[in-house]
Specification:
Elements: E1 23-33, E2 43-49, E3 71-74, H1 75-83, E4 89-93, H2 101-112, E5 116-121, E6 133-136, H3 166-175, H4 179-188, E7 191-197, H5 203-216, E8 226-230, H6 235-252, E9 255-256, H7 260-265
Parallel strand pairs: 2-4, 4-5, 5-6, 6-7, 7-8, 8-9
Antiparallel strand pairs: 1-2, 1-3
Helix pairs in contact: 4-5
The chain binds S-adenosylmethionine, ligand 2KA, iron/sulfur cluster and magnesium ion.
Residues 52, 54-56, 59, 61, 64-65, 94-96, 122, 139 line the site of iron/sulfur cluster.
Amino acid sequence: MPVDADPGDLTGDDEADPPADDALPINELFHSLQGEGRLAGVPSVFVRTSGCNLRCWFCDSYHTSWEPSHAWLDLDEIVAEVEAFAAEHVVLTGGEPLLHDESVALLDRLDAAGYHTTVETNGTIYRDAPIDLASVSPKLASSTPSADLVGGNGETPRPDGEPVDSAAAERHESDRLDLDALARLVETYDTQLKFVVTGPDDMPEIDRLVERVRDATSATVADTDVLLMPEGTTRKTLDGTRETVADLALDRGYRYTPRLHVDLWNDAPGT
Ligand SMILES: C[S@@+](CC[C@H](N)C(=O)[O-])C[C@H]1O[C@@H](n2cnc3c(N)ncnc32)[C@H](O)[C@@H]1O
Ligand SMILES: Nc1nc2[nH]cc(C(=O)O)c2c(=O)[nH]1
Ligand code: SF4
Ligand SMILES: [Mg+2]
């Protein structure tokens, strides 16, 4: 069910009301290996909510942001689908999962059932929830869409070829960082800061942002809590970015994270 991609519609909720008070707009739910970050390789169930407050040009989950679609599933249905797989880890992702009130109730249910919970978030929204690993991916200037942006890899910002409207770009640029939310996430949860790196030009912004987060919180942010992840949704693109990003991590003392799922399964759906 397609949802308005107007950046004014930030919730991903479409015109139809949810069928139950405790329903979430779910784009996909699947079993795979965690592909990114310090738990890379761990079998996990992925619950992907629809709707995002940002519009990264490179978004690998286009059908949750630029052109959101979903089915409404209530918490009982989501938990039953999660339990159908033999996994101890659940990854709540999106879109932006922390947009939705009901994500907290889902995390409560998963925590009570004994699951390890990871939340993949862009770091612009803080919520109090049982999160075992906050996998926070603050968005850099290089994520902002523009009418003429063509990634270094030759990918256009919108796979459907539609031009990017300037309102989406302006909204993205003004909303992509919220230092208070970021500091609160870092303060409260075991956190990894996972930056999508398009090239060496991203490094000064990463260094500055890490310092600002350190200044804003009493929690320790070790260099190895800062992860550099190469931009790319296909093996071919990653072939052009991963070595550069690995060298940048080595040079700076940050951690490198692969995109294991892309290396293994390229851009296959449900991986
Ligand atoms: C689709 S996002 C969903 C969660 C949240 N909206 C966020 O951005 O963190 C999941 C992860 O994929 C990363 N990601 C999205 N597109 C990417 C791309 N083209 N290359 C590398 N990582 C990407 C995001 O930075 C984030 O770490
Ligand atoms: N295998 C796999 N690992 C992932 N880690 C974070 C993902 C995400 O889209 O949030 C993701 C994903 O989509 N697939
Ligand atoms: S914040 Fe995450 S889901 Fe939203 S557009 Fe960017 S990568 Fe996609
Ligand atoms: Mg993904």
